[in-house]
Amino acid sequence: MSLKEQYWKYSLIVIILLLGVLIFLKITPFLGGILGAMTVYILLREHMIYLTDRKHIRRSIAAILILIETILCFLIPLALIIWMFVNKFQDANLNPRSIIDPVTNVANLIQEKTGYNLLSKANINSIFALLPRIGQVLMGSITSFAINVLVLLFVLYFMLIGGKKMENYVNDLLPFNRRNKKDILREFHMVVKSNAIGVPLLAIIQGAAATIGYMIFGAPAPVLWGVVSCFATIIPVIGTAIV
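^ thats the sequence. predicted structure below, dont judge the formating
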């Protein structure tokens, strides 16, 4: 290979790598939706094969049915849980003194031990300055979540439409022999399914056990805190203990 050919070869590699980095940076905000679509596709892949190969339903109609199943089984329960939280906090009657008094006591204790005044004018001004930023972060998170849900449904639809072609293309890209490719893909599917099914199942069991415990000991809003305990399983070891 001549020097000129080597130059063009390495230049092309550098351009491809730069384009890959640029594309990755641009899709980072939507990465949750894309990964979610991949996970749901692996979970519902057998459903798609059943509808198209055994029931001979058109792929577009089968994909729409799978999307409806995804919305009913994943998105609507999540929306109902969020609605329950919002409704519960809207009905909550908070006494400002119940929040201010403990904070004041802790601040006084710290001032006695260290001489540092947590409730100084500068600290209070800093807290009020952070409130608009916290609101912006919350609104940005809600918007990002809604966009990622739409991306998930959009990507999932086209993954279902071109399922076999996409799988064959990915299979051809893997730099392994046929046996190793099958082993890698089988292990990948197993890991994804075990996490996508096992983690929520463990969360439901843990949340149900926590709800029963809250009911036995007379905790307020046991169902609400049971749901919180359910989601706390994403924090290893200490999640439910914190609740």
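The mean pLDDT is 77.
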